[in-house]
Amino acid sequence: MINIKENKNLNILNHSCAHLLAHAIKRLYPNAKFWVGPVIEEGFYYDIDLGDEVIKEEDLPKIEKEMKKISKSDKRITRLELSKEEALEMFKEDPYKVDLIENMNKDEVISAYKQDDFIDLCRGPHMPTTKSMKYFKLLKVSGAYYKGDSKNKMLQRIYGICFENEEDLNNHLKELEEAKLRDHRKIGKDLKLFMTHDLVGKGMPLWLPNGAMIRYNLEKYIKDKEISLGYKHVYTPSLGSVDLYKTSGHWDHYKEDMFPVMKVDDEEFVLRPMNCPHHMLVYKNDLHSYRDLPIRIGELAHDFRYESSGAVCGLERVRCMCQNDAHIFCSLDEVGEEFGNVVKLILDVYKDFGFNNYSFRLSLRGKEKEKYFDDDEMWNKAESMLRSVLTDLGLDFYEAEDEAAFYGPKLDVQVKSAIGHDVTLSTCQLDFLLPERFDLTYIDKDGTKKRPVVIHRAILGTLDRFTAFLLEETKGVLPLWLSPVQVNIIPVNNEYHLRYAKEIETKLKENNIRVEVDDREEKVSYKMRESVTRKIPITLILGDKEKDNNNISYRRYGSEETVTVSEDDFIVLLNNEIKSYR
Ligand code: TSB
Ligand code: ZN
């Protein structure tokens, strides 16, 4: 999708369109006061104070109509330059603009743009006339706190977008419609995969039976893969004492992202935001020799993070998540190879799921001191080591500052969600800090004690975010092995064919196939359509021909073709397809 902010012409056009919006609002709601109207990746918005009036989605066409009128009237847009005093005088009726002006440098030239009787404070540049903004659309309206602070007044934010011609606008609107259909929240609701409830809380989805079946299969898939690669899985508690997180450093550098302390008797506990501290203690439970390394401790582990209520989003960003986590303990010499193994595993998994839209990001430390453990030497060593490991692996990656973990740099795999969020799916992280904090050791060849290095890695990331991305990539059309219901059986006529349908159901169940029989008194065509709506991979239609010959006829999702095979061949076909994770 196009990035309006980065495109020079569209940026100016959209900025001018924000003024057009404000102009129309001023005509329709004379008491409106205006805060800011910036250009964003997705177009533009304007934050407006309308007193007691509330703008709803239904009001947008009326505002668009007024904007069109002003556009058609072809008013020249002219620039005014003002001193601070002049600006304060000109905007004295609007406290938000006064706030902006007060905060400007004393010697700064203040500019404003005028179209007809409407003047707005602005740096510019702008289009020459209101007529330039002809192909626009108001997209949505939401609340936004003044200056983003929840203690301040809630303003109304109206979003829109503007293009140079009708075709571009229409194409973009079509893309937005398609993105809405791909949104995992819509798919999750339509296919009954998960729900949320205010009584449970924001960012805490409940997985329904269909979603839980997908998740169960994902868990089994990744755990089996890890076991074959030498990972050892553990189960550890979702809470830890505050002292555990003081030892690890989370208390100093990650507290803001954690739920507050719970006091029990004389002890203090927190819900864990990460599993590393528990896994460090698992390592420390034994003495280790260099011969035992690398040790790979894995867990599908629940974590709890305070994500702001505005940021939580379906399964993509939650407050209560399950990581596909592991911590690899190895010697310094083994770091390159182990990192390579993790990257290979990530690529294998993405291949199984057919993911192609992702990029590798080397996430480095930022300047904010409190966010990162303070040890320049450690950071320089870890960052340059990780950079050279990635270069040796021949990975195509970009670098980003202020994206590291507090304990070390990361290789993050970035993906884009249907509605345009840039999020991390898989991650692989290099850590010299936690082994130090927990005083981890192994006995080396020469009999001396050495410190292991820790690699933190999550392949699916969390089951939550992975499922969100999977649903958006597949539009909810899942491969056979993951589908909650794999086969739907439709008897042509209940009276004559239901018994045969039930026989087939039993056979499939004996072969661990997830199957349902649709025995409602409805038309076959109606049931077929519903099978498609539910995105069930295979639908059987059983009538006389099938019953008499002991075979089955099936249709695959997305195909109009009906195929007839023997029962046994059908079961072999399903089992092979499921086994291959195709
Ligand atoms: C990999 N200690 C490491 C671990 O050993 C860790 O916690 N890394 S993390 O902070 O990057 O989280 C791991 C993964 O969890 C991320 O890559 C991301 O895919 C996923 N994740 C992070 N926050 C959320 C969230 N709020 N909702 C859903 N998934 C999340
Ligand atoms: Zn970790």
Describe it for me?
- The strands form 7 sheets. An 8-stranded mixed beta sheet has the order 11-15-16-23-20-19-17-18, sandwiched between helices. Strands 1, 2, 3, 7 and 8 form a 5-stranded antiparallel beta sheet that branches. It has a 5-stranded mixed beta sheet with strand order 25-24-26-27-28, with helices on both faces.
- It has 18 helices and 28 strands.
- The radius of gyration is 29 Å and the shape is flat.
- It has 3 domains: 4-182, Threonyl-tRNA Synthetase, Chain A, domain 2, CATH 3.30.980; 194-474, BirA Bifunctional Protein, domain 2 (2-Layer Sandwich); 487-579, Anticodon-binding domain (Rossmann fold, 3-Layer(aba) Sandwich).
- The two termini are 29 Å apart.
- A hairpin with a 5-residue loop joins strand 19 and strand 20.
- The model has no long low-confidence stretch (mean pLDDT 94).
- The chain has 582 residues and is of the alpha+beta class.
- The structure holds 5'-O-(N-(L-threonyl)-sulfamoyl)adenosine and zinc ion.
- 5'-O-(N-(L-threonyl)-sulfamoyl)adenosine binds next to strand 16, strand 20, strand 23 and helix 14.
CATH homologous superfamily (4th level) name of the largest domain: Bira Bifunctional Protein, Domain 2
Question: Can you summarize the main beta sheet?
Answer: 8 strands, mixed
Query: Which molecules are bound in this entry?
Result: 5'-O-(N-(L-threonyl)-sulfamoyl)adenosine, zinc ion
Total beta-strand segments: 28
Share of β-strand residues:
25-35%
CATH topology name of the largest domain: BirA Bifunctional Protein, domain 2
Q: Nearest-angstrom radius of gyration?
A: 29 Å
Structural class: alpha+beta
The CATH class of the largest domain is Alpha Beta
Residue-averaged pLDDT, rounded? 94
The total domain count is 3
Number of helices: 18
